[in-house]
Sequence to fold (404 residues):
Amino acid sequence: MSSPLADKNIVLGVTGSIAAYKVADWVRALKRDGARVTVILSKGGARFMSPLTFAALSGNHVYDDMFAITAAEKIPHIELAKQCDLLLVAPASAGSIARMAQGLADDLLSTVALATEAPVMLCPAMNSKMYLHPATQTNIARLEEYGYKVIKPEVGAMACGDEGPGRLPEWHVARNAIFSTFVPQDLAGRSVLITAGPTWEPLDPVRFLSNRSSGKMGYALAAAASQRGAKVTLVTGPTALPLPSGVNSIQITTAQEMYDEVINRYEGIDVVVKAAAVSDFRPDSQSTQKLKKSSTTANTLTLQANPDILHTLGERKGKCHYPLLVGFAAESENHIEEGRRKLREKNLDLMVVNDITGTDCGFGVDTNRVTMLDYNDTTEELPLLSKEETAHRVWDRAVRLLNG
Ligand code: PMT
Fold:
């Protein structure tokens, strides 16, 4: 699977909100994901941004007038409505939302919204009082009844100085929602639990034992599962990544905390994916004071084993395949043998082995090269892919196993 947006026609309606400048970057990002972007600039939108900016970024003609016909036989609102795979209105001003909710056809964007059979997604962005006004809320509810997907605005400081809901969501939030329009909803109704990132095992208030996991692989799995309709719980060690949207995230620090959270939450879960790099050991004791160079404990570190979370789940699962258990292993040698050993010893259904000998896979980077091994002794080697694509391929396989 390449990008779900490859060759998709996204019609982007930009309306009159100060957040219009932010979506200039969204056009570039959509194109990077392989989409073709055509911008409709409302009258209000054109007061904030010039058509030239969007023409340059999209590489396409920008439509700002319903009656400016470019080719004699082409009627813009019908052509745009027909060719569009998704109508994305971002930012969606209070006025544009009201127009669409009333079914008005008094400008190009509202007319395309009426004429299209493609999904419509709105990202409201406006002053928080305008957003919370019952008129706007009623209009949004009506559009949701029509099947429009409305992404809630973020809460924070507005350009006018007010605080509250009304900020355009971050791109990664919108992107996740856009992707869910185009990926199979084969995890709908399923609950999945994913672990990500490293654990930190404190030695004293300033030092800890850890590893190089950035959390990218686990977060990609969480985002992909959410796009595919799953209810996602993410138990994450410390990372520098933004928490994926639409996911119930639980932040932990140590392996013991990860163990407690996973064991307390796994009942009723359909699939557990353990992409976290859990520290196998922790210091025997943790000093409440910073250890001094001169202290003997600073020279000799005694360790004790952390509980093996996946092993515990495998033991409890016994002979059945419920929940489906997916492990990850980062290996630098004999990776298939090591992966098979861990699959067996931990009683897993699927083991995803990272070959970490290259600089473009495993820890920290945006790409990965993995081999999937399952309990049926099948081996599937994937090429070098983005972690996002790897995540979707892992879910493809997990869904097949889930469906027997
Ligand atoms: O976070 P990134 O920078 O994107 O990097 C991704 C990754 C390389 C960390 C990830 O893809 C990965 O491979 N994670 C597993 C790392 C590993 O080597 O795990 P392991 O071989 O120690 O453990 C095997 C499995 O048992 C793993 O699923 C692990 O989560 C689990 N485990 C391990 C120890 C423990 N105490 N409890 C566990 O549940």
Summary: The chain has a mean pLDDT of 94. The radius of gyration is 25 Å.
